């Protein structure tokens, strides 16, 4: 959250979480911190998603 708070205006932090339980917690923390406008959280369905994006 510290990284997201320190981003300059207009910048976004992109996160990936493959575990659905951890993804749910991450979404709650992002919302609690009021950073939905700065953090794009993605929960891809499988490792193939990351491979397609070169991660």
TrEMBL record:
GO terms for biological process: methylation. Keywords: Methyltransferase, Transferase. Gene3D superfamilies: Vaccinia Virus protein VP39 (3.40.50.150). The keyword Transferase applies. One of its GO terms (molecular function) is methyltransferase activity. InterPro entries: SAM-dependent_MTases_sf (IPR029063). This is COMT methyltransferase. It comes from Atractosteus spatula.
């Amino acid at each position: 959250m510290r990284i997201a708070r320190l981003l300059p205006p207009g910048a976004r932090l992109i996160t990936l979480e493959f575990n659905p339980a951890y993804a749910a917690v991450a979404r709650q923390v992002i919302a609690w911190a009021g950073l939905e406008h700065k953090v794009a959280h993605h929960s891809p369905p499988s490792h193939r998603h990351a491979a397609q994006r070169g991660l």
